[in-house]
């Protein structure tokens, strides 16, 4: 079995789309661990709307490519529109497999991930996800837990 770390985000009707994505993911991966939702300020030029983010951990026999195809289908089913010219547009759903660029320094990734995997050590930095989340929180006040 392979283990994948996921980060989800939405800033178009997130109260609807995040729950739908969680339900779809749990149907595909019944043993999935899932964090609460967190409201976060947008990074880059993703528009003025705040995001809702969450993290998940899945165990599956699927390859990374197979998981990626499934995640893109869930995004599309939830109305995701991709713009190759601008990756920072508002979105109904974005689901990424970690690691991705600058992931250890992003509060919207590390805080939800630390909720479900605080003691896991990042092999690149040698720090636990909990320690990385704490460092991120020291640099931002723009994150709020939403009970889910």
Task: Describe this structure as you would to a colleague.
The chain has 148 residues and is of the alpha+beta class. The chain has one domain (2-146): 7,8-Dihydro-6-hydroxymethylpterin-pyrophosphokinase HPPK (Alpha-Beta Plaits). The protein has helices at residues 14-28, 64-77, 107-117, 129-138, and strands at residues 2-10, 33-34, 37-40, 51-60, 94-98, 143-146. Strands 1, 2, 3, 4, 5 and 6 form a 6-stranded antiparallel β-sheet that branches. Helix 3 runs antiparallel to helix 4. The relative contact order is 0.23. The mean pLDDT is 93.
What labels describe this entry?
6 strands, Alpha-Beta Plaits, alpha+beta, single chain, 148 residues, 4 helices
List the helices and strands and how they pair.
Elements: E1 2-10, H1 14-28, E2 33-34, E3 37-40, E4 51-60, H2 64-77, E5 94-98, H3 107-117, H4 129-138, E6 143-146
Antiparallel strand pairs: 1-4, 1-5, 2-4, 3-4, 3-6
Helix pairs in contact: 3-4
């Amino acid at each position: 079995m392979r283990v994948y770390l996921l980060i989800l985000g939405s800033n178009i009707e997130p109260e609807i789309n995040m729950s739908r994505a969680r339900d779809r993911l749990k149907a595909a991966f019944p043993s999935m661990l899932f964090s609460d939702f967190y409201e976060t300020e947008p990074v880059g030029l993703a528009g003025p709307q705040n995001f809702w983010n969450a993290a998940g951990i899945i165990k599956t026999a699927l390859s990374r490519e197979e998981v990626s195809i499934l995640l893109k289908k869930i995004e599309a089913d939830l109305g995701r529109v991709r713009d190759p010219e601008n990756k920072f547009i508002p979105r109904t759903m974005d689901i990424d497999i970690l690691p991705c660029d600058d992931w250890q320094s992003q509060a919207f990734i590390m805080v939800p991930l630390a909720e479900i995997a605080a003691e896991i050590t990042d092999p690149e930095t040698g720090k636990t996800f909990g320690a990385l989340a704490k460092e991120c929180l020291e640099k931002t006040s723009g994150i709020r837990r939403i009970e889910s």
